[in-house]
Inverse folding.
């Protein structure tokens, strides 16, 4: 299908692609992978969808037929296509969705396009990482490293799940947003951050989230954990990292990746939004035009603006 883009998120993954960290990207190129809009054209072999339907899609567009898809794990599809990475994305008036029957997600009328645009990558990735991969439960202590879009999503989701949330960032404005969306403790990043987390949590966090993607954060996050704790890796790591495996072994830690979320899992997340458990749209701090996108993308190299930026093509 072809979708007219109403809202599309500006994500740090777009910045990674622009910086040359993704070998799938071939110039000239159109970024953008978090989008929501209305269907304007339906392929001849697509059933169940019509022009005018309000839709979004995961950033991993799955084939639906490979062994990973058949096992229900479309987010690791062997033949996956990704808008904004393997093909032209949603920083445009229109974007295509391949294998549409497997990948389209219907947006309920009560959910805004801005909220739905945040689901395709950051919010869905954080939700699956914490709830489905991390098996987060009420009363656990969670430390989130990095309070950009995916980090703030993790803060909001963890707080809604009944966890005690610690947020770590260098930007005071981002920490203020983290407090607003559920963090009980906020910490400014420095060399002793793991020790501070250990002290605040009386022995370590149950779950740590790397929402930035750096070797230093991975090390600090692992050292923030209690024995048998879990590190959820959401931030992309543009270069190989060295990990002290003795920490993983001696403390029986788990280091779990989360690569988006399959379309069939979205109804659970959408139900939580409709019920008021969390609101991705509340994370939107800036709405800009497509003409303003290049400067906003470049600014992400210096952390960028606090909160989520949404583009309206």
């Amino acid at each position: 299908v072809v979708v007219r883009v109403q809202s599309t998120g500006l994500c740090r993954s777009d910045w990674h692609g622009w910086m040359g960290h993704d070998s799938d990207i071939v110039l000239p190129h159109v970024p953008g992978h978090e989008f929501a809009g209305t269907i304007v054209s339906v392929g001849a072999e697509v059933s169940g969808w019509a022009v005018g339907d309000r839709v979004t899609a995961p950033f991993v567009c799955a084939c639906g037929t490979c062994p990973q898809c058949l096992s229900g794990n479309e987010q690791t599809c062997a033949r996956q296509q990704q808008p904004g990475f393997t093909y032209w994305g949603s920083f445009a008036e229109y974007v295509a969705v391949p294998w549409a029957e497997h990948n389209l997600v219907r947006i309920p009328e009560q959910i805004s396009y801005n909220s739905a645009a945040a689901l395709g990558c950051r919010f869905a990735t954080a939700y699956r990482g914490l709830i489905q991969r991390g098996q987060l439960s009420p009363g656990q202590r969670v430390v989130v490293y990095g309070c950009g879009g995916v980090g703030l999503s993790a803060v909001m989701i963890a707080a809604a799940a009944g966890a005690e949330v610690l947020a770590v960032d260098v930007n005071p404005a981002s920490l203020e947003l983290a407090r607003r969306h559920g963090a009980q403790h906020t910490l400014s990043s420095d060399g002793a951050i793991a020790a501070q987390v250990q002290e605040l949590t009386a022995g370590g966090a149950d779950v740590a989230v790397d929402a930035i993607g750096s070797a230093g954060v991975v090390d600090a996050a692992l050292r923030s954990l209690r024995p048998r704790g879990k590190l959820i890796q959401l931030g992309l790591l543009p270069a190989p990292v060295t990990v002290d495996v003795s920490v993983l072994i001696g403390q029986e830690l788990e280091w779990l990746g989360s690569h988006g979320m399959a379309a069939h899992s979205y109804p659970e997340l959408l139900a939580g939004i409709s019920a008021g458990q969390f609101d991705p749209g509340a994370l939107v701090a800036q709405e800009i035009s497509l003409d303003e996108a290049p400067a906003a993308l470049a600014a992400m190299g210096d952390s960028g603006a606090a909160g989520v930026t949404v583009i309206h093509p």
User: Anything to note?
Assistant: The first helix runs from residue 12 to 18. The chain is about 30% helix and 20% strand. The CA atoms of residues 144 and 251 lie 20 Å apart. The mean pLDDT is 93.
